[in-house]
Design brief:
heterodimer, A: alpha+beta, Rossmann fold, 2 domains, B: 326 residues, mainly alpha, MetI-like fold, two-stranded antiparallel ribbon, 15 helices, globular
Chain lengths: 358, 326
C-alpha cells in the first residue's frame, strides 16, 4: 500500500478559504492525526482525500498515481464517519459486507468475510442484530469493520471517538491503534482532542484557520512547538508577553535568559510548560519571586497557581516528584530553566534571518 | 396580622369557575360533534341513498334495495346477462391513478433530492413556488393542458410547423405513434389518449409529491450516501441500496396518498380520456349531476369507490408492515 501525497491542495467555499494550499505526505503504514480546533479545515482536508470534496487547487497522489479526479467510489479508501453513518435498514453483517456486495462478491463469501471482520473488532455473534440494537462503542466497531471490508489502501477516520463517552473513548483509542499497527494500513484520523492524537498517532498535523501549523511526532509537537498556537493548543502552557534584548527577553522588569532569534526590541511571546518550571530549586538563571494563589490537588498531580512578577502562571508537580508542598498565600521562588522557554513571534515580530535578508 | 388576613376571598366566584370547567369538558364533545356532522353525516347520507331507487321520469325515492350494487358488479340483466361496464370503469380509475401517482412520485423523487442539496434560501424559494402552484384549480390546470395538447394548436401544431411530423413519417416512427393511438393519418394527436390523461393527472399531483417527500429527504443523513460512495457504490447503487430503502416508508405513503387522491379525478379524465375509458368518478358525476340523473346509482358507485380506496390503503399498510418486519 503506497503512501499518500498532497501537493498544494486547497479548498475555497465561495469567498471562504477552508484549506490554504497545503503540502503533506502520509507515509505508508503510518497513522497520522489531523489535529486542530473546530473549523480549522481538518475535516475538509480529509473529505478531499476521500474524494467527497473536489479540491479548488492542487493534486493528490497515491504513491505516484494521481487520484485528484478519481471519484470517491473508485478510490478504495475506507472511511469511518463522525456519525458512523451505519445503514439502519441493514443488519450488522450486511453493513460490514456492503462494499463486498457492491463489488459483486457472492452473498456467502461476503457474509463469511463480514463475520471474520466482526471477529477482528470483537463483535462475534452480533452479525444478525439491527444497528439500532447496538451501543455506541459497538456501532463504532461496526463502522471500522465496514470500512476495512474493502481492504482499503488508505483508512480515514473523521472524529471517530466523538460520539463515545470518556472511558470508552480511551479504550477505543488504544484498540484502534493496535488494530492499525496489526493491519499496517496508512491511516489518517481527524480529531480535535490532542490527547487522542498523542495516544494514537505516529505523526500529528496541527491545523489552524485552514493552515498547517506544524507537522511532527507527538513528542516533537509537545516539546518543540513551532509557534504560540501549537504550544497553546497542545497541552498547557504559561505565556508572557515580552521584548527581546541581548541575551534574552524582558518581561516586565525581569530579564529572562532565553534563546530568542529575533531582532533586538521585537515583541515576542515566551511560553513554558507547567511541568518544566520548578519551585525553590536554588540559585540560577530566571528565578522570580511568586505567591501561591491557589492549590489544586488532582491525585496524581499537584497544581500551583502562582502570582509572579511575570504575571500569573501555573506549575504542575507529579506525585513522587521532589518539590516543596506549599499552601495558599505562601511566598516562594519559581525557576524557569532557559532550555524550557519557547520564544515565539507575535504578528508584528519578524524572524532575524528574514529581516536580515531584506 | 398575617398577609392572608388582608385577602378578601370573593365566595361568589365559585359558580363561575364551575361553569368554565363545564365548557372545557364540553369542548371535545363539541369538536367530535362537528367532525361527525361534517364528515360522517354526508357519508351516511350517501350510503343511505345508495340503497334508494330511481323512479323513471322522476327523481328517486328512499328504499332498501341492492339493485344498484347488483347493477355495478354484474349489470341489471343478471342472471340472464352479465356486464362488467362499471367494474371496467373502476379498473380504469385504478389504472390511471396507479400509473399517474407512480410517475409523479418517481419524477418528484430526483427533483426533491436535488432540491434538498440546494442552499436553504433556494430551497425555500422552490418550495414557495411549488406550494403556490397548488392554488391552481384542477379545472384551470386541465384547461392549460387542453390548449397545449389540442389538435389544432399547441404541440401537434408545433410538430407540424417545425417539420417534426414529417421527420417522424420519414423515419417510420409516425406509424409507432399511430399504433399507440398518438397520431391520426395527418399529424400527431394527444387528445384523446391515455398519455394525455396520465400526463395531466401526474402534473396535478406532482407538487403534492414534492411537498410530501421533502421532509423525509431533507432529514436524510448525507453521510449515509457518502459512506456508500467510499465503499465503492456509484450514484445508481447509492440510490438503490441507501436512499430508496431509507425513504421507503414516505415514498410508499406518498404514492398511496396520491393514488387515493387521483381515484377521484374527474375533469382531467373527462377532457383527455377516451369515453370508452372513462372512470368511476366521471360516471358518478353523470349519474348525480349529469344526464343520467340516477342519484342512488351514483351514490352506490361513490360508496364502492370509497371502499376500494379504503381496501387499497389497508392493503398498503399491511404490505408496508410486512416489508418492515422482513
Amino acid at each position: 500500500m503506497p503512501g499518500l501525497v498532497l501537493k498544494g491542495i486547497s479548498k475555497r467555499f465561495g469567498g471562504v478559504t477552508a484549506v490554504e494550499p497545503t503540502d503533506l505526505t502520509f507515509a505508508e503504514g503510518e497513522l497520522t492525526a489531523l489535529l486542530g480546533p473546530s473549523g480549522c479545515g481538518k475535516t475538509t482536508l480529509l473529505r478531499m482525500i476521500a474524494g467527497l470534496e473536489a479540491p479548488t487547487l492542487g493534486a493528490i497522489f497515491l504513491g505516484s498515481v494521481p487520484i485528484t479526479d478519481r471519484p470517491a467510489h473508485k478510490r478504495k479508501f475506507g472511511m469511518v464517519f463522525q456519525s458512523f453513518a451505519l445503514f439502519p435498514h441493514l443488519s450488522v453483517r450486511d453493513n460490514v459486507a456492503y462494499s463486498l456486495t457492491i463489488a459483486g462478491t457472492s452473498r456467502g463469501e461476503a457474509a463469511t468475510k463480514a463475520d471474520s471482520l466482526l471477529d477482528l473488532v470483537q463483535l462475534s455473534g452480533l452479525g444478525d442484530r439491527r444497528i439500532g440494537a447496538l451501543s455506541g462503542g459497538q456501532r463504532q466497531r461496526v463502522a471500522i469493520a465496514r470500512a476495512l471490508a474493502q481492504e482499503p489502501d488508505v483508512f480515514l477516520l473523521d472524529e471517530p471517538m466523538s460520539a463515545l463517552d470518556a472511558k470508552l473513548r480511551e479504550d477505543m483509542q488504544v484498540e484502534l491503534r493496535l488494530l492499525q499497527q496489526r493491519l499496517g494500513i496508512t491511516t489518517i484520523v481527524v480529531t480535535h482532542d490532542q490527547r487522542e492524537a498523542m495516544t494514537m498517532a505516529d505523526r500529528i498535523v496541527v491545523m489552524s484557520n485552514g493552515r498547517v501549523e506544524q507537522v511532527g511526532s507527538p513528542q516533537d509537537i509537545y516539546h518543540r512547538p513551532e509557534n504560540a498556537f501549537v504550544a497553546d493548543f497542545i497541552g498547557k502552557a504559561n505565556f508572557f508577553d515580552g521584548v527581546t534584548e541581548p541575551g534574552g527577553v524582558r518581561v516586565g522588569d525581569t530579564l529572562l535568559t532565553a534563546e530568542a532569534n529575533f531582532l533586538e526590541g521585537s515583541p515576542v511571546k515566551v511560553a513554558i510548560r507547567p511541568e518544566r518550571a520548578g519551585i525553590n530549586e536554588g540559585p540560577g538563571p530566571n528565578v522570580v519571586p511568586a505567591t501561591v494563589t491557589f492549590v489544586r490537588d488532582l491525585g496524581p498531580m499537584r497544581e500551583y497557581h502562582l502570582d509572579t512578577g511575570l504575571g500569573p502562571m501555573v506549575i504542575e508537580y507529579a506525585v513522587g516528584e521532589k518539590g516543596e508542598v506549599l499552601t495558599k498565600g505562601e511566598t516562594t521562588e519559581v525557576r524557569l530553566p532557559p532550555e524550557a522557554l519557547h520564544v515565539f513571534a507575535v504578528p508584528r515580530a519578524a524572524p532575524a534571518q528574514k529581516v536580515a535578508a531584506e | 396580622m398575617s398577609v392572608a388576613d388582608g385577602i378578601d376571598v370573593p365566595l361568589g366566584d365559585r359558580p363561575a369557575a364551575a361553569t368554565r370547567l363545564n365548557w372545557s369538558k364540553l369542548l371535545p364533545w363539541g369538536f367530535a360533534g362537528l367532525v361527525f356532522a361534517l364528515c360522517l353525516v354526508p357519508f351516511f347520507l350517501v350510503l343511505a341513498i345508495s340503497f334508494g331507487r330511481k323512479v323513471e321520469g322522476a327523481a328517486w325515492v328512499w328504499d332498501f334495495t341492492f339493485e344498484n350494487y347488483q347493477r355495478f358488479f354484474v349489470g341489471t340483466l343478471w342472471p340472464d346477462e352479465v356486464t362488467f361496464l362499471y367494474i371496467g370503469q373502476l379498473g380504469y380509475s385504478f389504472w390511471y391513478a396507479v400509473i399517474a401517482s407512480c410517475i409523479a412520485v418517481l419524477t418528484a423523487l430526483p427533483f426533491t433530492l436535488l432540491l434538498t442539496r440546494l442552499r436553504r434560501s433556494a430551497q425555500a424559494a422552490w418550495l414557495v413556488f411549488i406550494l403556490s402552484s397548488l392554488s391552481l384549480s384542477e379545472v384551470f390546470i386541465v384547461m392549460g393542458w387542453d390548449i397545449l395538447l389540442s389538435n389544432n394548436s399547441g404541440l401537434p401544431a408545433l410538430f407540424k410547423s417545425t417539420g417534426l411530423t414529417q421527420w417522424l413519417k420519414d423515419t417510420g416512427h409516425f406509424q409507432t405513434l399511430r399504433d399507440w393511438g398518438l397520431a391520426n393519418p395527418r399529424n400527431v394527436k394527444f387528445k384523446t389518449s391515455d398519455f394525455a390523461t396520465i400526463l395531466t393527472m401526474s402534473y396535478l399531483v406532482w407538487p403534492y409529491a414534492v411537498i410530501l417527500l421533502y421532509p423525509a429527504l431533507s432529514r436524510m443523513d448525507p453521510s449515509h450516501s457518502e459512506a456508500a460512495r467510499t465503499m465503492g457504490a456509484n450514484n445508481w447503487q447509492v440510490l438503490r441500496t441507501v436512499i430508496l430503502p431509507s425513504v421507503r416508508l414516505p415514498l410508499f405513503g406518498t404514492t398511496l396518498l396520491l393514488f387515493v387522491f387521483l381515484l377521484g379525478t374527474y375533469v382531467a379524465v373527462t377532457v383527455f380520456a377516451d369515453p370508452a375509458k372513462h372512470t368511476t368518478a366521471v360516471a358518478i358525476y353523470q349519474n348525480v349531476r349529469g344526464a343520467n340523473l340516477n342519484a342512488p346509482f351514483g351514490a352506490t358507485m361513490a360508496v364502492i369507490l370509497l371502499v376500494s380506496a379504503g381496501i387499497c390503503l389497508t392493503l398498503g399498510h399491511m404490505l408496508n408492515r410486512w416489508a418492515a418486519a422482513r
